[in-house]
């Protein structure tokens, strides 16, 4: 069985009134109803007096919205929604990784779980792997310490022997877990000046941190004989197509904009719409009732 995580952004039905923590949007005097969250506003701050549970959704640097996030779990082959949830647009308790675990909490058999970078956290991987699920979650992109330099994938980390080998072939020991996040560190010495490794000052070398809850653990790194490959970096085409289709169905006919105020009512609406779309999809797949039992026609099953 397969499951795919997605999320989509929704807006309240009416334009929110200004509240403390908001200021006119760029190139606006405030009279056109366009506002933005004030820079420096505390996380979780109320952004609307009309809908107090709405939160600021930081989508991109140029595209900002206030409202809620709809989280979806779907079966990619049929496009059926297996679980949905609507949460405020911001807050650690509403993060994709937290909601993603809730969406798969009722799965009683192992599934292949596909998701994007937002779901790629150490806690998600550890929890789902302990439950027997297989994860195909795209890891976060890596950035070298210096332009054109090495990244974490270029280091060979062996947690069994507690050693780390750098691209230049130097091997140093990996320390015992320590600190709040139980990090294990490896400190490298100085290489030739032309080695693109670190941006540290001269004679400082490079410190390499690693810990079990890292967003990109050793199991997601490319094997030594395939340095150009990014393991789990590409989602299968079926899962990608399935999640795109599920989001398009959900927001079709203007349903990206919510009709109600508050999390409770909008979450109920989301579940109702997902159920209606599931019924429509089942009928398309040939759902029939025979001898008091529902079944899909053999041609579509």
TrEMBL record:
Superkingdom of the source species: Bacteria
Domain Transposase IS4-like per the UniProt entry, residue ranges: 53-132
GO biological process per UniProt: DNA transposition
Single GO term (MF): DNA binding
UniProt-annotated stretches for the region Disordered: 1-47, 201-232
InterPro entries: Transposase_11 (IPR002559)
Protein name as annotated: Transposase
Annotated organism of origin: Streptomyces sp. R28
């Amino acid at each position: 069985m397969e499951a795919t995580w997605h999320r989509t952004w929704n807006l309240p039905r009416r334009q929110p009134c200004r509240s403390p923590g908001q200021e006119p949007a760029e190139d606006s005097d405030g009279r056109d109803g366009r506002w933005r969250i004030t820079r420096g506003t505390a996380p979780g701050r109320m952004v609307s007096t009309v809908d107090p549970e709405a939160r600021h959704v930081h989508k991109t640097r140029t595209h900002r919205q206030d409202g809620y996030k709809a989280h979806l779990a779907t079966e990619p082959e049929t496009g059926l929604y297996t679980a949905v949830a609507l949460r405020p647009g911001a807050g650690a308790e509403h993060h994709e990784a937290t909601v993603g675990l809730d969406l798969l909490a009722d799965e009683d058999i192992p599934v292949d779980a596909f998701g994007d970078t937002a779901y790629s956290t150490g806690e998600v991987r550890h929890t789902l792997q302990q439950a027997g699920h297989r994860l195909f979650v795209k890891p976060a992109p890596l950035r070298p310490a210096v332009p054109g330099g090495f990244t974490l994938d270029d280091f060979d980390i062996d947690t069994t022997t507690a050693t780390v080998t750098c691209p230049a072939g130097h091997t140093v020991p990996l320390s015992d877990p320590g600190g709040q996040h139980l990090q294990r560190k490896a400190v490298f010495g100085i290489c030739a000046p032309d080695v693109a490794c670190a941006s540290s000052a001269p004679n400082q070398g490079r410190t390499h941190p690693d810990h079990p809850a890292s967003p990109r653990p050793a199991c997601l790194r490319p094997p030594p004989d395939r340095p150009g490959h990014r393991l789990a970096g590409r989602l299968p085409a079926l899962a990608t197509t399935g999640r795109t289709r599920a989001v398009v169905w959900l927001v079709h006919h203007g349903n990206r904009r919510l009709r109600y105020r508050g999390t409770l009512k909008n979450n109920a609406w989301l579940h109702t719409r997902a159920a209606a779309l599931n019924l429509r999809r089942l009928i398309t797949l040939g759902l029939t009732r025979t001898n008091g039992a529902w079944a899909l026609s053999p041609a579509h099953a």
